[in-house]
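Hi V.,

Quick status before I head out on leave. The structure for the redesign project is tokenized and pasted below; the design run finished overnight.
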């Protein structure tokens, strides 16, 4: 007798779960929602950059608008031959490297100090990070008129009471003065980042090292400093990007002088564009600044990625 029930095996496709939709179709609505934000961001970056490139290849001086015209790479050539250009590059490199060294070393030492428990530590931390919240122009005026002034400044007051001749810091040591002012502002930033990283250090490592007879110096160099390596890299990357555009401190204190002693690339672009009214050459300087910033950012990001890769492998 033939059975009416179909005992043939079911097709494999009918038992398998439904296949998900294609990836592109599935995420298309999300991409459409992202389009306005991405388009606005692109316009925010591309339009100013395109205008800067346009002006950099044209003669455009606000004092002679009738002589405007295409000049190709003439503005770049003029900028490279400007006696102030290469000193400004050197001053930019000196300022960035000096502030980085001072802020990283100072921030590390302060982070180690404030990681120890003591009475009034919270208030002391607020006092340390206070300079980071002071506007650059205000900070520069405080140092110029209240601390470094050769007659009314605090340093002059102390030196007179010690029987020494007061020093006009901004006139005799202009770059050193600017480095001190900028470092005073950026040490709190390094301190905050490094203190946060230091508080994530496992105390068992320190206790084990102390049981093995390691002193504070050896613990710092073999346990604390390697732990802070990634945080120090982040500090260097962020500070370098911002220090490339230092302007207010120089404008308020030395105005790029004496001569070109404190003229960095940012101040040179300002001087050419808004004091000499040559928008074309200033735009060429702006393109140089953008290229320099991207080169520095590229190497810093690679350094950070290598650092993160090493930490993940461990």
């Amino acid at each position: 007798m033939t059975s009416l029930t179909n005992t043939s095996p079911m097709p494999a496709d009918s038992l398998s779960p439904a296949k998900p939709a294609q990836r592109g179709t599935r995420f298309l609505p999300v991409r459409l929602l992202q389009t306005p934000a991405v388009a606005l961001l692109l316009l925010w970056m591309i339009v100013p950059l395109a205008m800067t490139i346009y002006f950099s290849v044209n003669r455009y001086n606000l004092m002679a608008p009738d002589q405007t015209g295409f000049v190709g790479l003439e503005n770049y050539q003029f900028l490279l031959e400007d006696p102030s250009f290469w000193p400004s590059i050197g001053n930019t490199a000196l300022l960035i490297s000096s502030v980085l060294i001072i802020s990283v070393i100072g921030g590390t030492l302060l982070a180690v100090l404030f990681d120890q428990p003591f009475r009034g530590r919270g208030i002391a931390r607020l006092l340390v990070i206070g300079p980071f919240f002071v506007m650059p122009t205000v900070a520069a005026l405080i140092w110029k008129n209240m601390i470094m002034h050769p007659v009314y400044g605090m340093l002059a007051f102390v030196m007179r009471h010690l029987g020494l001749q007061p020093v006009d810091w901004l006139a005799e040591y202009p770059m050193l003065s600017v480095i001190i002012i900028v470092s005073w502002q950026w040490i709190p930033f390094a301190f905050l980042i490094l203190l946060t990283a230091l508080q994530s250090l496992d105390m068992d490592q320190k206790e084990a090292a102390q049981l093995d007879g390691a002193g504070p110096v050896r613990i710092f160099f073999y346990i604390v400093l390697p732990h802070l390596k990634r945080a120090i890299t982040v500090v260097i990357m962020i500070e370098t990007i911002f220090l490339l555009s230092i302007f207010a401190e120089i404008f308020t204190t030395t105005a790029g002088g004496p001569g070109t002693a404190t003229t960095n690339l940012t101040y040179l672009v300002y001087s050419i564009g808004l004091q000499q009214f040559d928008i074309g050459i200033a735009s060429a300087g702006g393109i140089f600044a953008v290229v320099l910033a991207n080169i520095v950012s590229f190497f810093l990001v690679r350094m950070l990625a290598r650092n993160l890769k090493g930490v993940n492998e461990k």
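Above is the designed sequence. The radius of gyration is 29 Å.

G. will cover questions while I'm gone.

Best,
W.
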